[in-house]
Amino acid sequence: MPDRKDDGKDDTPIEMVSLMNQSMEQEEGLIRDKGWIEWKGEEIKTYPLDYNKVGIVKIQIITNLIVFLVFGLNDQTTGSLIPTLTKSYGISKVVVSNIFLVQVFGYVLACLLNEKLHKKWGMRGAMNISIGLFILFFAVLALQPTSFFVYVACYLPIGFALGILDSTGNVLIGNLEHHKNEWMGAIHGLYGAASMVTPPIVSHFVKYGRWANFFCIPLGLSVLALTIAVPAFRHETAAKYDYICNANNVETGSLDRDDEQTVITLLKNPAVSLYAIYLFVYLGAEVSTGSWLFSYLLSTKSDDRIAMSYVTSSYWTGLTVGRFLLGFITKRVFSSEYVASLAYSLICLFFYSILLAVGTINTDAGWYIVVLFFVLFFCGVFVGPLFPNASIVAMQVLPRHLHVGGVGLAVAIGGSGNALLPYLVGVILHFAGMSWFPLLCWSMVVGFTLIWSIYPKYLPIRIHSYFRQELV
């Protein structure tokens, strides 16, 4: 197997498209002046996604870093507040789980409207509208709605915004010209970092009787993100999105593809559908573990909220470490992101198996809590890099005109997994008991490991060469 040259620049099979743009530009009669192009009667600004040469790309990266912080805070808040919400609103854990279900509908809307949103308003509109939804509905949550119906309804637009921003961020970072692995690890690592600090912070807000004030944190970050996003994405218009899609359709022999990729059409592509199923199960396992871990520990191990919040944080600490650290190791040790993820998945399954065994012990002894802390930490370490690696693999095997539609759809479907599966886990735990928690999480880890292992077998023959080269 030849060594991979680590020169900081990432090559993908779609790079030949840039060499074809000249012929397309001649046929379309484009006017180019220092990055400005006239496309179908509109002027658009083009530039490489090279943050070393183009300053605006740095600002776009910073915007996504902040957005992923908000993701982490949001995804772990519900799990950390479950005991508090049941008490404050006088409802059961199953009713609280409806938050996850409502967020699923938001992700479904993101699946259906992501492509339309980009065609209508471009990445600029998608970013600004979604962050604006964050600001509006985190503000409502910060006011502590008196009705749980109002509280849970806020998660429909929040789920929609999550689906749009998640797919947009992954596409942008995955197409960077330099160090995409490291930056993908960084944005997902910040997600983990935010999730890591959420349980203890929420617990302290609860301790002083002001739990709703916690939402001021994601609200403030969302305001900051929108302030940066408006100038950072000002050139990412609908016309530019149309140009990018058509520029990359040169490889298909069509210079102007106006037909819209429908959800059904995209899902017929095995690279998209398998990626979506993988993310659905993976994100379900990741978020189910983080969301129900705190309640599981309080119910079966110890009633010390502060101590158990720190044990819960060990999982998110590991996830953060894994995404930051293994993001740098992947390219230097493994032949590809696919091979790296296969190895990480097997190691992750090993530690979840230990969690399954250790979970059968019911004690609050100090040594046992320490063991739980480290087992959960390593579960997080090796589950962490799987999402960013999978996103990179998907963009390596898909043509670029399918990046927003295909990757966006898969991420949105996967995002519904991080809401639907935690909901189902909550229902099962309500009727079967909290002691089943480790087994449910272990089963999902087995599921996404199997899906990833068969991923290359169901892709078109033209893509097989990518995997054969990397698995040699």
From TrEMBL:
Q: Which residues form a coiled coil?
A: none
Q: Which GO terms describe its molecular function?
A: transmembrane transporter activity
SUPFAM superfamilies according to UniProt: MFS general substrate transporter
PROSITE patterns attached here? Answer: MFS
In Swiss-Prot or TrEMBL terms, this protein is called Major facilitator superfamily (MFS) profile domain-containing protein
UniProt cross-references to PANTHER family, sorted A to Z: BYPASS OF STOP CODON PROTEIN 6 (PTHR23514)
> What is the source species?
Torulaspora globosa
Where would you find the membrane-spanning parts of this chain?
A: 55-74, 94-113, 125-143, 185-206, 212-233, 274-294, 338-359, 365-387, 407-429, 435-455
| InterPro entries documented for this protein | MFS, MFS_dom, MFS_trans_sf, MFS_Transporter
Q: Output the Gene3D superfamilies linked to this UniProt entry.
A: MFS general substrate transporter like domains (1.20.1250.20)
The subcellular location is: Endomembrane system
Major facilitator superfamily (MFS) profile domain location is 60-459
Q: Name one GO cellular component term.
A: endomembrane system
Provide the leader sequence positions: none
Q: How does it sit in the membrane?
A: Multi-pass membrane protein
Q: Name one Pfam family in it.
A: MFS_1
Record-stated family: Belongs to the major facilitator superfamily.
Q: Which UniProt keywords apply?
A: Membrane, Transmembrane, Transmembrane helix, Transport
Q: Does the keyword Cell division apply?
A: no
Q: Among its keywords, does the record have Transmembrane?
A: yes
